[in-house]
Design goal:
mainly beta
């Protein structure tokens, strides 16, 4: 079973930037399409961005033009560069397979956008 460890969250002012990282265990990482998700307490977990095994990205409309997903297969890591952050981006961010919940969820990383 693939284990996922997210990091890089924190408190940032509106308009600021953060870079999230997710390290996956195992030797088949390069074959997986991966995704970033986020969840606000009391709401359903939503898809933010995905990246195919070949590197093709897709984004939710709410983050298009502000967030960039990338991957480094040599490091078993997927990244989410978040720019021009807004208060509504506040959530716990998780990574997983591009099929939501395909892997066991990690602990996530909290992103708080506030002045």
């Amino acid at each position: 079973q693939v284990q996922l460890v997210e990091s890089g969250g924190g408190l940032v002012q509106p308009g600021g930037s953060l870079r999230l990282s997710c390290v996956a265990s195992g030797s088949a990482f390069r074959a997986y399409a991966m995704g970033w998700y986020r969840q606000v307490p009391g709401e359903t977990r939503e898809l933010v961005a995905t990246i195919g095994s070949g590197g093709r990205p897709n984004y939710a409309d709410s983050v298009k033009g502000r967030f960039t997903i990338s991957r480094d297969n040599a490091k078993n890591t997927v990244y989410l560069q978040m720019n021009s952050l807004k208060p509504e981006d506040t959530a716990v961010y998780y990574c997983n397979h591009a099929v939501m919940g395909y892997f066991e969820w990690g602990q996530g990383t909290q992103v708080t956008v506030s002045s």
